[in-house]
């Protein structure tokens, strides 16, 4: 009896040990001749980005022949969840892609300041602010992301409006919308606020027509007065637009990216505050709307003294992790990923407005030409200056404003409280 | 004494003597006693026998401890640290206080309560449909497979299908318009959205419960039904006085599994159909945890929410076990 028990115990123990043993990772000796950089992003898997990635890889390989670069494309839905886990563990990719604004600022602790590496690129690329925190740059911009107001020229023509001269003031804008509604049945705005993103686009897209330049700059600089008449006016416009039927029906259940762009493309709405890069931009709309039927207009002026400007920031950009073993190499990879050749390929295939201001965009139609011409005078978007916590609260409050379950004053109070906390 | 000699192993003798096992065990015990005076020769074996049970349970205990309890302890510990700049620093119960003051977390807990309230409905639907199939309503064979069909679809696909169906300009609202009723914003109205999602969840999962019910029916004594029929019982009376009492165990089982399903597998539907909206009305703790960790970059706060969810699930689970045990005793 005894020995049998002993044997079975030994066998079990041996199995357990063997099981544990095979589960442990066999670490290859590091510091070999072959160096490797790992990049995480959500772009490199897309066919439209293939040429861009190839170009960047080639550029990097020319300068560092011995280094292999591995791109790991993560699903965007899970990207920041996965990244959060990597950051928590203090190890993961050497280089990673970020959205500008809150997403990168919230995680700046885990990133390497790039100022000394990218000094040469500072003037060639635009959009650095979105990747900076406390005066330090944490990523190099790849695309610019902004919120131009696109309009459907065909609907303007049908309503007897001049598509070459979009409205300049809010009252012209609203009466134009009424004419379009009457002639074509299309609503004024295509609005998707299911995720609470609609308000962000609205705030940034129309904000420069409401706030004075001084108020605007203060807002970006962090001096935000949520009780000022200008800020209040923006949220009143949001509520009015909903109450007066300027939006498509069911805005609170219309998804921002898929559904709402379909509403605009199919001519059910005359205007949309869209994006410049990634998705929902001039290049995406062309499936239904030819490029010459898409116009870009400036924010209509709501209050006197406002100076409309294109709201844009750095869209996506590559950053270097603090824990990387080869900071110089990783930073150089970031430079390859933002080289003119690579970005030209990205612009050409994906239609993204790249951060490189030296790329020639004159071939792409009037909408792009308008956007490109406004980049010089453009300013950072209002919503990008807010923390992700405040944006989250704003999303829910915007839904309540549309459904009428809260008032503008109450909403602004909560937003001010959330903004103060940071 | 079947022991061959002092050097013999403790292994039972040839299998042919299995019938004598009881006798033999006593023999062995008796036989070991004389050896104790020579204990110096066998300390290894004695210790091995003492240790054997521990070694045998070790893998299970280790797996539970290393892969369940230890991470759980880490998670609870983590929930008492800060986020962002305070990463890793102990902050006491600050995260729990923040949860207590977060209206979004309140909504998510209230929605758990709502799910518990809707549970009887989610159990009654498959139960009733299974009853009809069992009572052989016309076409019952077709229904059996049709009802089960949605259970094989992933929540993401189900969510995408219903997103189209329930869109403001979708087919269901067109149908309502055709019969003269106004359109309903199924997923955009905070008062309706949660019921819509639960409805879709029940639609997608009731097939599994239906199968369990049908299995329960197969154990039902048909003579009872015949007797009821002979006595002239109506359908309602048959269900209430014959079928339900006979199926108590099955119903309890379905209750437990449906509850677990509702509390743990709604995430996919919520993610695809409402993103927690509108106005945060369809948040559940799981979604809240994911949102804080992945979107708001607040892993420690998410840990605190996970701990709360764990406690809630523990209480619900213990209650269910108690109920089941009490019911088991009645049988």
TrEMBL record, chain A:
GO terms for molecular function: maltose binding. One of its GO terms (cellular component) is ATP-binding cassette (ABC) transporter complex, substrate-binding subunit-containing. This is Extracellular solute-binding protein. InterPro entries: SBP. One of its GO terms (biological process) is maltodextrin transmembrane transport. Residues 1-23 form the signal peptide. Gene3D superfamilies: Periplasmic binding protein-like II (3.40.190.10). Pfam families: SBP_bac_1 (PF01547). It comes from Nonomuraea deserti. The keyword DNA damage does not apply. Keywords: Signal, Transport. Belongs to the bacterial solute-binding protein 1 family.
